[in-house]
Amino acid sequence: MTSSATLHEAAAKGDAAAIRTLLAGGAPIDARDGQGRTALLVATHGDQVEAARILIEAGADVNAKDHIQDSPYLYAGARGRLEILKLTLAHGADLKSTNRYGGTALIPAAERGHVETVRTLIAAGVDVDHVNNLGWTALIEAVILGDGGERHQRIVRLLIDAGADSNLADRDGVTPLRHARDQEFSEIGAILAAAGGR
User: Fold this and answer.
1) Cα separations in angstroms, 51 against 1, 11, 56, 111, 156
2) Does 55 share its domain with 137?
3) 112 and 124 belong to one structural domain
């Protein structure tokens, strides 16, 4: 078994001691597995915070993408892995990098209702009006793929407060407010209308 394979296994298990030993022994920190994942991305998948911390502080690339265009930074943002996300942001995360859908980390975070992740990404400076390959912004995804509940209401408020354009429509010309009304999300609709949504 190669040292890089062992490093991936240690990362998956969150075995901090093994990771330190392997790195000290010269294991290549950004080696890829069969899916193109680095050990850091494997640790991020498993929300192995201490393993991720050790790898990041040892110089692992937080922007290294796998075969499906996920990086530790993008995956942490999309999945609400807040502690790992903050580590990636402190160690050179590329805020303009995009996933296989052409979206920033903010867009799936908004869709999935990760309130603190959205707050963190906004504070880091991710473009709140970035449009992905589907023609959707974080605001549109929070509305059409969210559940209209309290978490998505908070995310819509955060995006609006951060300057998101409440009238930036999708490719069909449908605005966030029209989507909210179509879904009968009255609370989100009220937030958008108060922000000048049409």
Assistant:
1) 20, 6, 9, 27, 33
2) no
3) yes
**Pair 89, 115 in one domain:** no
Q: What is the DSSP string of 20-37?
A: HHHHHTT--TT---TTS-
For residues 107 and 197, membership in a common domain is answered with: yes
Residue 4: the pLDDT is 63
Helix axes 82-90, 115-124, angle to 10 degrees: 10
User: Do 152 and 89 share a structural domain?
Assistant: no
d(CA 8, CA 41): 9
Residues 146 and 194 in one domain: yes
- Measured distance CA(150)–CA(162) in Å, rounded: 18
- The boundaries of the domain holding residue 57 are 1-94
Domain count, the chain: 2
Helices 150-161 and 186-194: angle between axes, nearest 10 degrees = 10
The token pair at 51 is 């393993």
Give the separation between CA 127 and CA 180, rounded to whole angstroms.
Answer: 22
Q: How confident is the model at residue 68 (pLDDT cuts 50, 70, 90)?
A: very high
Please list, in sequence order, all residues whose beta carbon lies within 8 angstroms of the beta carbon of residue 190, skipping any fewer than 6 positions away. Answer: none
Both tokens assigned to 81: 């892995």
Residues 88 and 127 in one domain: no
Question: Residue 119 above 60 pLDDT?
Answer: yes
135-165 tens-digit pLDDT: 999 999 999 999 999 999 999 999 999 999 9
Q: What does DSSP assign to residue 2?
A: -
